[in-house]
Fold this protein.
Amino acid sequence: MKRRLMIGFALAVLCAASSVAEARPPTVMNSPGYDRRLQESRSQLGSSPTTTAPANAPVAQPKRSKKKPPN
């Protein structure tokens, strides 16, 4: 009986401790300067013609199987 009480108490403490924990690290924060630079770099990448069309890849021909001789 005493053992069940201790297990129940331990589970309650464990659940309470896990619900208090935050899902993000403490280093995550909003930075207006970083966000502005990120938007500028993304806009520059979006307008640059660095993307090229893929070269015409050779089309693989279907493999022909040998015909089985009739029985």
